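ok so for the tutorial part 2 we go from a plain amino acid sequence to predicted structure tokens. step 1 is just haveing the sequence, like this:
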Amino acid sequence: MIKYISICLSAAIGLTACSKEKNCCVPEVPMVNFIFKFDSNQVRLNGQGVPAGLPAGHKGQSPRFNSMSAHYVELTPGAFTLPGGGDILYRAPETTVGGATAIDFSQAKFAGNNELFLSVPLSEIQPGTYNFLRVSLAYQNYNVWARVTVGAQTAMLDATVASFIGFNTYVSSFKVKDSTVVENANKLQGFWAFETSIPGLGGYVTKGQAPAGATTVPNPLFASSPIPPGSCLVTGQFASPFVITGTETGNINVIVSLSTNKSFEWTDADGNNTYDPLAGDAVVDMGIRGMIPTRN
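step 2 — the prediction. this is what the tokens look like for a chain of 296 residues:
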């Protein structure tokens, strides 16, 4: 049975809840708190968890992250533990409104850099030694630089990208930056929207769908514990084994460091090393490039 947990975005972790009416305090419950960190300097991995550079003819930049959403979180004991065989801490709400089962984006919870995205009572985690963490990422919102030429004018623009990287997501509507995009449909992994403001033309919004399998999902256990095709179940090894005895009395923080090292990747059609969406440059990958969880 999947455990009930609470998700919050509050920075107030581990405070004691008090009742003024009864003039008493309820003892705090020890929690395990998972906190996102986005690191553009962390090693850049491919889908097999091996360090990887950019292919010839491709360029990349490290996005400036605004928020991330997760669909599934699991503590995994060993390299041969298949997905679902560890301690499942969270699964986001799903829906069949769009047909096939999909993540319900309307109920997604978001967290930014150094923000709490999941808090689980320690008592609900099975005691044991866990060497890996698996997090199924569902949505990311970030900013990148785009070069645009209109007539005789060229400008480097700050653009916002909203990208859906979960296996399948039912999207009624979503906000990229200032603009709202309405879909009312299921969207497979790789659906994205791009918003910026072009001098002389005003706001500009476009959207698209990356080909199946184009999103990098690092899994260093690909040979012994493969992930379902089309999922974004990122696997990362703890910096040192994560041990839960069940006798801990205080909160435990886990920093989930995600590599954003040139995670926004495109084919550089004009060879000028900048992202030029109106000059033939095509985005080919928006996947996170690795994950390192560390007990703090």
